[in-house]
Structure prediction request, 304 residues.
Amino acid sequence: MSLASGATLLVGGSDAIFGATSPSLATNSVWKLGGDLQVNRLGFGAMRITGAGVWGWPPDRDNAHKVLKRAVELGVNLIDTADAYGPETSELLIAEALHPYPAGLVIATKGGLTRPGPGSWVPNGRPEYLKGCVDKSLKRLQLERIDLYQLHRTDPKVPMAESLGALKEMQQAGKIRHVGLSEVTPEEIEQARKILPIVSVQNRYNIADRQWENTLKYCEKEGLGFMPWFPIGGGKGLKPGTAVEAAARAHNASVVQIALAWLLERSPVMLPIPGTSNMSHLEENVAAAKLKLTSDEWKQIDAG
Prediction:
């Protein structure tokens, strides 16, 4: 799949969702994951709807349901989660709030990271474990097939080919539609694609942290979706006196919205998935999709 077939303009629908006034790649575009799953490029990350430290149930379960429902009302149709978020509770909350799912909603989940305790994340890429993860995620999400299943981390104790071989089996069994990777280099993606098709990559990326720039460029070249986690970078690069703050003043927007707009304009393969458990933050994030930075603003922010 090339960029030309992966990124298309959503005629009319995006204007209605985001209030855009004129077509542009940043505000009106969608992406087709795997060439067939059409999603609006600004998605929602469901890690933060869990309890403190991404552990256990949230203090206000009803609020988590409301945030998820509101995200869909605002036009979000790509929700990213993982069995490690909670663990398990993020997937369960999604099903509680949204099942039966509206047509066109893509739920992407991940497996391959275990949670021995709060603050602890340990890879497990054993084939039988991963196959069990897929089955359990299907049950929690109340799905017959997962549209996008991502290997959350490669396990240094298990050859990646063995882990991906297990996901290929689940794909052949009809339990997974598409497969993605997380925290990988271009070389690792190349190796993975010799085993099965890869449609997306989820690496950390934001204005202040571009360690995975080469992976992003690979995704652009090969037409793979790039889902930047930690897209705001914890506020780094969004401090007073920066080009981000200047653009925020010019557009009467928040620095967070400018950071998301910058990501969307950075590349047509970019699929930011900002997460929150706060309704107003959610609405602020989604509204960022209608912003259009000037060429000079974008370059100044890009230059840091």
Observations:
- The radius of gyration is 18 Å.
